[in-house]
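Case study B.
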Amino acid sequence: MTTFAEIAPQLEHQAIEVPSWAYGNSGTRFKVFGTPGTPRTVEEKIADAAAVHRFTGLAPKVALHIPWDLVEDFAALRVYANDLGVELGTINSNTFQDDDYKFGGLTHHDPTIRQKAIDHHLECVEVMGATGSRDLKIWLADGSNYPGQADIRGRQDRLADSLQAIYAQLSGDQRLVLEYKFFEPAFYHTDVPDWGTALAHVQALGENASVCLDTGHHAPGTNIEFIVAQLLRLGKLGSFDFNSRFYADDDLIVGAADPFQLFRILFEVIRGGGYGPDSEVAFMLDQCHNVEKKIPGQIRSVLNVQEMTARALLVDRESLEAAQQEGDVLGAHEIFMDAFYTDVRADLASWREARGLPAHPMQAYAESGHQETIEAERVGGTQVGWGA
Amino acid sequence: MTTFAEIAPQLEHQAIEVPSWAYGNSGTRFKVFGTPGTPRTVEEKIADAAAVHRFTGLAPKVALHIPWDLVEDFAALRVYANDLGVELGTINSNTFQDDDYKFGGLTHHDPTIRQKAIDHHLECVEVMGATGSRDLKIWLADGSNYPGQADIRGRQDRLADSLQAIYAQLSGDQRLVLEYKFFEPAFYHTDVPDWGTALAHVQALGENASVCLDTGHHAPGTNIEFIVAQLLRLGKLGSFDFNSRFYADDDLIVGAADPFQLFRILFEVIRGGGYGPDSEVAFMLDQCHNVEKKIPGQIRSVLNVQEMTARALLVDRESLEAAQQEGDVLGAHEIFMDAFYTDVRADLASWREARGLPAHPMQAYAESGHQETIEAERVGGTQVGWGA
Amino acid sequence: MTTFAEIAPQLEHQAIEVPSWAYGNSGTRFKVFGTPGTPRTVEEKIADAAAVHRFTGLAPKVALHIPWDLVEDFAALRVYANDLGVELGTINSNTFQDDDYKFGGLTHHDPTIRQKAIDHHLECVEVMGATGSRDLKIWLADGSNYPGQADIRGRQDRLADSLQAIYAQLSGDQRLVLEYKFFEPAFYHTDVPDWGTALAHVQALGENASVCLDTGHHAPGTNIEFIVAQLLRLGKLGSFDFNSRFYADDDLIVGAADPFQLFRILFEVIRGGGYGPDSEVAFMLDQCHNVEKKIPGQIRSVLNVQEMTARALLVDRESLEAAQQEGDVLGAHEIFMDAFYTDVRADLASWREARGLPAHPMQAYAESGHQETIEAERVGGTQVGWGA
Amino acid sequence: MTTFAEIAPQLEHQAIEVPSWAYGNSGTRFKVFGTPGTPRTVEEKIADAAAVHRFTGLAPKVALHIPWDLVEDFAALRVYANDLGVELGTINSNTFQDDDYKFGGLTHHDPTIRQKAIDHHLECVEVMGATGSRDLKIWLADGSNYPGQADIRGRQDRLADSLQAIYAQLSGDQRLVLEYKFFEPAFYHTDVPDWGTALAHVQALGENASVCLDTGHHAPGTNIEFIVAQLLRLGKLGSFDFNSRFYADDDLIVGAADPFQLFRILFEVIRGGGYGPDSEVAFMLDQCHNVEKKIPGQIRSVLNVQEMTARALLVDRESLEAAQQEGDVLGAHEIFMDAFYTDVRADLASWREARGLPAHPMQAYAESGHQETIEAERVGGTQVGWGA
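Model:
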């Protein structure tokens, strides 16, 4: 079996973007609960993201959401972030919170609204120039609620046109990353419901377009690690939105609902060349915590990814392959499980300490007084949330 | 085959409660779209419900939601409703929109908050006295998002105690109806997730407690008509919340996602004695429409129930039973499908006309100018929605 | 609204291949029930298929399964079929009933077994020459039961190679049609689990390769008509395997579990150019009936497709498009549902009679004495079933 | 945190019945693969079960399936088993492999067949007398494939009568344990599809009737540990059938598909009083392995239960309860996960050695030569499988 010492060097490469919207209030359609200490400004969101990085060393970038994070001077925001030790990352567009988009954005039957949605993305591309972001991530809320309501096929054609118009404005290393989602907020049909649809569109666009896999966006029973392996094989896995879910798109802490699934996903990532300095796959969280504290919720999340990456790196791939070649079902399964069941937490604590990080980030955060400080300081103003 | 004329008399018994909250704005966690003409007051909601009844003859009662529909003078509200031709119906409690209920209400670990939730229900019972409502319907948002977060078992015991305290305050014909829901807003565990749990609790309470079956609250693949048959058999089916869903609890127009399922459900209702003057099963809609107009959305919904009831009544049950007894799979299935495939719409149009109702309620509503009137009149004020 | 008379001419184009294996005994892993009259030979299977066509005019072709339907002289079998009024259709390969295929066929890690699987397909291509079949349909049972058991990624590469070797042997108009399936018989991972994977492989092969969509092979909640529309848009929908399911791959009578879904699928087929004389999409049944009589089960199935095709043709597409353009959700949905709810059965009965077919094929079959004849005649010998 | 030493004494109580049918050939409806060394007789099955116990100390009982395991002299079989160090356990009835049961057994519309099914169970009760078994476990394959095929409601009433007739024949400590299953082999409706139905029936029977929970028999997304907690609370959890599944009832090695779910289930078992010397909950495997070797597959399975039981015992319940009371979501979750992530394997190896058991049972079995011996010896005769 592989040892922790052998895999430790590979842990240096781990970097997980955290989303600016993770620190605002979020909830369900039934209720959004407010909590003390919630940011009121983009700057406070970035400060929270920087805290996650400070305690873990794992989250060097903050993903932004436009228009939620629109500021007049993105160059200044970039300096602000850098001063706190983080960079601005992926730009996420939003065509689901304007009344005009009731029946879609990039797929809309009305050319005026469709153009408005395209223009919003062009604005995002401009922001990318100012922030130095590489990726424009597009998630569509487009779809319909009733059979007959919409022209499913025509919407695909319009989507292809819209994406083409946006893609044409990218320059240099910039990438368009298209996210798919099984359902919600549309119930009957979703315009990019599965990886096959996302793939068909990014293949039509070209080399700098790829697919974003959100781990919460699949039908029950879907083998997600298979999709990971397939997209890597096809050279079209652009990024991950990590989170976990029990039933729908619950946006819980990654690894919380099914830790073994996260292990299997990371194993295919590593095995397929999606991890490490030579990979261009971006790792992000996309989580909206409803009842837990936000900053430690994000700390827990990046730690979960790190712990599971360590376990996945521990798989003795040579022995595994030998067992597979022999058709030794139980032997191969056991080699695989051996890594999953190995408790890497003590080794990781030492590894962190050796790098000047807290051995136990959750505990260190709790003892740091940071939470109490922001709860005391952030009084007055309007707490941010989805849409604010 | 049974004819429409033979079943027509049974259509007289149909009455479907419409919810007051169907007319306010609703949406998903991503966005609530506003629409012109949305009610600003409880009275305007009741007026909308009355319009549904006026055009269909099917919706003589309005279900209320407390505190959304709290008024100072329920007696006056009752007169107001009666003047518009409708009655006040089921009272629905709400323990999910107050910050105190973040970790539950009737199941809460803190006795103070649990008592607050109980007291809210006692207030609902008082309202029932004033409105003349028979049923107190309890749907719990209680649950947890993470394994370990909550004491699943202890919460059941507390729930049993809380329900007992509420049940003890009912008088006369008043009933407690407990609704179950598979998931949402809690993601990991829900305190009343299935009909078995609801049954266990209402059995412990007594004769005037029963189960509410919401057609959208089940795991994928669940045979809902089986549950209908079982609850009727056990004498514990109290009411229906009708709606439809493709994946989660979409709250779409009943019958829209799977008309054949609605047919099968209504067949078991009729066959099990749940329909007609001798039945105490209450039929309600529980729908929240996001992108369609509210009043015609409700008209379409009650018509769907009526059309499908007519089809279910058309099943030639004698022939069906004979085929079943012979093990004639295809014959029995065909007798069943024959009723489903029969187009009852023209017969129903005539039947309506004979009763002084519009033959085509959807068209009549569109041509009535009612929608234009409320859109013009309801300007200013705050549109109601979930939580308002 | 469109009338039956207007759409009647389009009904002439309908042709649905029936599978030879539909007439043998089949069942579940728990039990296969035998029934009197079950065929003992390929010829008797074809005779049963011919009976379906004789009573319906809808099933002019029989799909064969190799090696189940291997005969020495396929030219003679072709003549035999033609004499009974039907043609031999799609050739289906089988790499799941030989001990060598325990860990896969076209994906196997052992080159010897992989070559054996390729050779089996080359034999199928030879059969196609003799039978005049256009399509080679490949469904793989390949996959694994345990995480770690197999090299998911390597199997994709081997599959691509194997398919290339087979594709290279096609000639003229011959096509390779690749079927995907969500799960079963493998439980953890399936090598072609979704349309995206099938698409990636057939795109790599070339113009004469396309995807087979089996309506029972999806995760719960999947919008199948969306996939139909997408594959037609991409020019890669090769064929349908029709059946229906409640939960897994139940292989029930098409349209039995969710008639409205079949309607929506056929609407997208028609709208996307997949129906009619200019389309190359092949329509097949893939059903294995366990408890009902086989021949009338197939008759019921092709009638279901016909009835639902008629309804889908009835959709007033001009009005529908207008309502969609206006964002009239309820109006568009109603136009769509209007066609679904129209009872076409009487019109179809007349239409059949005008063509010399029985007005009521199910009844005509029951009264024909055919079932009694085969039950009396087919005594002795071994009834065919899966694998025989 | 609790230590292994503290929980070690509780591990002594663990006993898991293994099923006699686990050692025969099994498969899917597509194919049953044969393997060398498969038992040909009941005695050889028991010998295999005894091997599992010899290597693990965890499997002191063998569950039998009637009529698969019918012998003339059960007293002799009991002695045979005892001599090998195991006892005969639960008796499982079978009403799904006789042609008469095509449309059901205990629910059948034909009184003759229904009586035959009842009589079969009475025969099982007689066997229990001879074997000294406590439990009669009843799993019904009864159901229907098509809407309309069967009288769902009437079948419930007949089932209640049949169970009553069987229950009346139990004596002393004998128990009737009723198993539920979501679907398969029936597809449209299953007569005991959920725990609510099983509960309703066993409540009607009396104190010696309880529910069997098979971990693979639920709809996707079902929270199984909730059901465990609820049944324990209601005093009606009779036994477990352990296995795991990814989608349907895959009958894989318990804990293989979702180890964390097994942990959560065992935590609720322990917390609810279902584990230990005072509990009457029976733990069984119900697995049918298709591609792996049978004996080591069972060894792996009982070890998985043991390892996960150890982890569940390690949960620091006092701290957990304190965190829950404080509404500390992340804290409570972390306490819970801490136990799950603890690697207990080395401690368990020492614990086994101290009891004269092999430290590493899988390895010990592989090195023992037992597999090679049975493969060499068991030549000729007919291998047993489902139904043999």
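Chain A has 14 helices and ten strands. The remaining cases will be described in the next quarterly update.
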